[in-house]
């Protein structure tokens, strides 16, 4: 029961406070990671693995130690705060809703600026449908990275698990690139993130299917996910696009070059309503996870008293 209550408390904190505006813990961690990278970087995988351990290991081990020695009336609030810091549910809406609002009013320039805060692709040349597709894809993918992944690892390993997942996800975003600078150094960060996301991504895809158009989501997941470069983003975005009946993927510009990407989903061309439906899908999925968490908690409690 404690796990389910902490999950609820963390989600309510996220709903109430959103991401910290000042001194975000992940921003501070990013600065530490840059400092470590500056001192360990070399074109070798072992250096990247060592840097990853130096950045993540001490924090996770320190939290595990604190959680194991303090009484529950201290450890539970600490766990709720840690989980809250790893979540970004409200932030998804705060980034995506301005894109939808700008598209609804026909302000394409503002929509491009807003979606540029969400994605790494070039946004200046995107048309209305491409802007909507970029925002919808970001919501669906980050539903896993910023919400369900953290909830899964918290349910499995408590606050240290949620922290481990979120720090690994952050390092993947910093180092996990296939560039000359990071191809070897960032290999460990990318592979560790893939491993930690393997189960959560598929649970997220299943969640999207259950909370949307199940038949289309399931078909898109089975037929389209394997075509995507990322083994975890593929199932998440294919199932999510199918669940909200929208066509995603296709050409997108990166660093001045248009790259053709596999198709995702099925149905209408993306627009402002696609973004709104994707946000609703993620939020409905969170409610489903909370219901399951409390049902499991009550079942375990019942068995314990049987």
From TrEMBL:
* A Pfam match: CobD_Cbib
User: Which pathway features in its UniProt record?
Assistant: Cofactor biosynthesis; adenosylcobalamin biosynthesis
Please give the GO cellular component terms listed in this UniProt entry. plasma membrane
User: Could you name the domain of life of the organism this protein comes from?
Assistant: Bacteria
State the UniProt keywords alphabetically.
Cell membrane, Cobalamin biosynthesis, Membrane, Transmembrane, Transmembrane helix
The answer to whether the entry has keyword Transferase is no
Location in the cell reads: Cell membrane
Q: Which GO terms describe its biological process?
A: cobalamin biosynthetic process
Per the UniProt record, which residue ranges are transmembrane?
49-66, 146-168, 286-304
Q: What exactly does this protein do? A: Converts cobyric acid to cobinamide by the addition of aminopropanol on the F carboxylic group.
PANTHER family, alphabetized: COBALAMIN BIOSYNTHESIS PROTEIN CBIB
Q: Which family does it belong to?
A: Belongs to the CobD/CbiB family.
Official protein name in the record:
Cobalamin biosynthesis protein CobD
High-level lineage: Bacteria, Pseudomonadati, Pseudomonadota, Gammaproteobacteria, Lysobacterales
């Amino acid at each position: 029961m404690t796990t389910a209550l902490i999950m609820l408390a963390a989600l309510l904190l996220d709903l109430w406070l959103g991401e910290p505006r000042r001194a975000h813990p992940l921003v501070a961690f990013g600065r530490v990671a840059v400092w470590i990278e500056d001192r360990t970087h070399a074109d070798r995988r072992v250096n990247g693995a060592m840097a990853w351990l130096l950045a993540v290991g001490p924090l996770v081990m320190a939290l595990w130690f604190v959680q194991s020695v303090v009484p529950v009336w201290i450890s539970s609030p600490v766990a709720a705060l840690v989980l809250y810091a790893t979540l970004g549910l409200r932030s998804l809406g705060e980034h995506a809703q301005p894109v939808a609002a700008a598209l609804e009013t026909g302000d394409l320039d503002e929509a491009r600026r807003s979606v540029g805060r969400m994605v790494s692709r070039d946004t200046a040349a995107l048309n209305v449908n491409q802007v909507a597709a970029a925002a919808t894809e970001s919501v669906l993918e980050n539903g896993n990275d910023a919400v369900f992944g953290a909830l899964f690892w918290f349910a499995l390993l408590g606050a240290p698990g949620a922290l481990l997942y979120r720090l690994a996800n952050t390092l993947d975003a910093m180092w996990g690139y296939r560039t000359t600078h990071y191809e070897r150094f960032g290999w460990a960060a990318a592979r560790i993130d893939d491993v930690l996301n393997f189960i959560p991504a598929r649970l997220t895809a299943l969640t999207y299917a259950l909370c949307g158009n199940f038949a289309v989501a399931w078909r898109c997941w089975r037929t389209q996910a394997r075509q995507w470069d990322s083994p975890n983003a593929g199932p998440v975005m294919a199932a999510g696009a199918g669940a909200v009946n929208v066509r995603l993927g296709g050409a997108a510009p990166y660093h001045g070059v248009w790259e053709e990407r596999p198709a995702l989903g099925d149905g209408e061309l993306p627009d402002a309503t696609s973004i709104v439906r994707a946000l609703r899908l993620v939020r409905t999925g969170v409610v489903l996870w909370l219901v399951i968490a409390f049902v499991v908690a009550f079942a375990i409690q019942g068995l314990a008293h049987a």
